[in-house]
């Protein structure tokens, strides 16, 4: 059993053109016109491969290759990207999933369990928060109404955008019976490249916490207002940014903390910032560490805002616990990596993935391939075709193992 490397490479090129940036990256935010174009292309390819395509109420796309019986082995990922992101995050998993199906067809292999390709809506959480929104709804962890009412920065509702691009489907977005869920993804860190290995056998995903903070200061003129009477929202926010960094260095271990979004009002040269909104992203393999980190955020925000005499609202609005994958699926991935002749190691993921929610409703697992320089969520994101070939072969063999030959 082998994949068609040239065909896979062409698919990566072609899909990667939709939303391509000048510097070789990708800006294809969820439910934009480019997302619609990319979905349309995927649906065409899925139909060409003979799959029965369906869309659910969150816009998740499913394409089933029939088996002789039983629930499907689901393989997939997402095709939305972050702004000025890369061409591999998400879309590589979807295309290797499609290549798995094409390779099964080429070899004339019939499987016991169906093999189903899935493309999840809004995995990135770049346009609508939180991340992994549609797999979260499917797993019953996020209410459909809450997801529908998520708004982008321009106030547009997710449900209206789903309808606008024609992907508000009829199928219920609920847990489906699954033999297993498998997702190939780029590692997005340096481990595999440093070890010179092509494949990561993923054993689990870190716990994730997202918070939003809004600081209300007093907007005033930058000239006539003496320093002693100011209540500057950005000064308090600046203290919070450095405090969030310090929480990671204080607790140590594997904890990582990031302030990635900062919006200043009115955001001009000659006004004291009246309000600031910012995001806090924290991750650690141990869920308890995030409890401690959240308490430290509470204290740091209270102290910074008290010093500047400003009001604030802090909301810890999203939390995913550490997610171990099913040993049965992890073992299948490991066997497949060995059979593919790939150098591999077991590891855990520092990025969130739809597999994290799928693990709540199915035996789940993931396959990683290396990221050059460990970089992702940037235009420099790159994975070599030799590694992709080994990863895709691992996916094919693991899917076949779990689906069983008919
Ligand atoms: C998704 O890319 C995440 O890990 O935030
Ligand atoms: Mn991704
Ligand atoms: Mn991503």
N-to-C SSE series?
HHEEEHEHHHEHEEEHEEEEHEEHEHEH
Q: Which range best describes the helical content: under 10%, 10-25%, 25-40%, 40-55%, 55-70% or over 70%?
A: 25-40%
| Each distinct ligand | glyoxylic acid, manganese (II) ion
- Report the β-strand fraction as a percent range: 15-25%
Q: Gyration radius, to the nearest Å? A: 22 Å
Low-confidence parts lasting 5 or more residues at pLDDT below 50?
none
Most strands sheet: 9 strands, mixed
> What general form does the structure show?
elongated
Cα(first) to Cα(last) distance is 15 Å
SS field, number of helical segments: 12
- Total strands: the figure is 16
Give a brief description.
This protein has 406 residues and is α+β, with helices and mostly antiparallel strands.
Word description of this protein:
- By secondary structure, this protein is an alpha+beta fold.
- Helix content is 36%, strand content 22%.
- The protein contains twelve helices and 16 strands.
- The protein has helices at 5-16, 33-48, 91-106, 133-138, 144-148, 158-164, 191-195, 233-251, 287-308, 327-339, 354-358, 385-403; strands at 52-55, 61-65, 73-78, 115-120, 180-186, 199-205, 207-216, 220-221, 256-258, 262-265, 271-272, 275-284, 311-320, 323-324, 344-349, 364-369.
- The strands form three sheets. Strands 1, 2, 3, 4, 5, 6, 14, 15 and 16 form a nine-stranded mixed beta sheet that branches. Strands 7, 9, 10, 12 and 13 form a five-stranded antiparallel beta sheet that branches.
- β3, α3 (91-106) and β4 form a beta-alpha-beta unit.
- The model has no long low-confidence stretch (mean pLDDT 98).
- One manganese (II) ion (MN) binds at residues 82, 89, 124, 377.
């Amino acid at each position: 059993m082998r994949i068609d490397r040239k065909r896979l490479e062409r698919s990566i090129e072609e899909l990667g053109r939709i939303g391509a940036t000048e510097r070789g990256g990708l800006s294809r935010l969820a439910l934009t016109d480019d997302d619609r174009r990319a979905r349309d292309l995927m649906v065409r390819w899925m139909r060409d491969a003979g799959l029965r395509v369906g869309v659910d109420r969150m816009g998740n796309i499913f394409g089933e290759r029939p088996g002789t019986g039983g629930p499907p082995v689901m393989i997939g990922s997402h095709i939305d990207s972050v702004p000025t992101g890369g061409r591999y995050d998400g879309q590589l998993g979807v295309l290797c999933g499609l290549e798995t199906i094409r390779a099964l067809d080429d070899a004339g292999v019939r499987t016991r369990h169906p093999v189903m390709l899935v493309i999840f809506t809004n995995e990135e959480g770049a346009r609508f928060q939180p991340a992994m929104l549609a797999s979260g709804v499917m797993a019953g962890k996020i209410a459909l109404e809450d997801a529908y009412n998520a708004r982008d920065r321009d106030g547009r509702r997710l449900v209206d955008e789903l309808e606008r691009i024609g992907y508000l489907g009829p199928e219920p977005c609920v847990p489906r019976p699954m033999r297993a869920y498998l997702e190939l993804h780029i590692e997005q860190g340096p481990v595999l490249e440093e070890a010179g290995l092509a494949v990561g056998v993923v054993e689990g995903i870190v716990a994730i916490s997202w918070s939003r903070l809004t600081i209300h200061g007093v907007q005033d003129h930058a000239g006539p207002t003496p320093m002693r009477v100011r209540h500057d929202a950005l000064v308090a926010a600046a203290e919070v940014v450095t405090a969030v960094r310090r929480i990671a260095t204080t607790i140590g271990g594997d904890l990582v903390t990031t302030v990635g979004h900062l919006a200043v009002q009115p955001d001009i040269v000659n006004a004291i910032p009246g309000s600031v909104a910012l995001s806090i992203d924290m991750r650690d393999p141990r869920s308890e560490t995030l409890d401690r980190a959240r308490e430290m955020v509470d204290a740091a925000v209270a102290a910074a805002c008290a010093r500047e005499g400003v009001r604030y609202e802090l909301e810890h609005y999203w939390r995913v616990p550490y997610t171990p994958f099913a040993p049965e699926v992890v073992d299948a991935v490991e066997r497949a990596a060995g059979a593919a002749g790939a150098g591999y190691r077991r590891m855990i993921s520092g990025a969130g993935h739809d597999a994290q929610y799928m693990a709540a409703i199915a035996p789940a697992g993931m396959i990683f391939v290396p990221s050059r320089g460990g970089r992702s969520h940037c235009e420099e994101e790159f994975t070599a075709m030799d590694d992709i070939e080994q990863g895709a072969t691992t996916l094919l063999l693991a899917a076949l193992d779990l689906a069983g030959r008919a």
